[in-house]
Amino acid sequence: MNLADMLTYADIGQLSNIANHYQCDAKRNSKHELIQSILSKLGRRDFVEEQVRVLSAKDLRFLNNLVFDARSGYSLEELIAAIRHSSVEDEPKAAGEESPRDAVARYRRSGWLFNGFTHSTKYLFQVPADLKERFREVLREKLLEDLEYAAQEPEAYRDEQGLAAEDMLLFLRFVERHDIELNQEGFMYRRHQQQLMAALHIPEPLITKGAWRFGYGRSCIEYPDRFSLLYDYAYARQWVREQGARLVLTDRGKAVLDEGNQVSVLQIFRFWLRLYKGAVPNITSLVYWISQCAQEWVTAESMQKSLCWLIRPFYYDSPHNILQLRVIRMLMHLGMLRIGESERDGTVIRMTALGMKAAEASLHIGDSKDFIH
Question: Residue 89's pLDDT is what?
Answer without folding.
Answer: 64
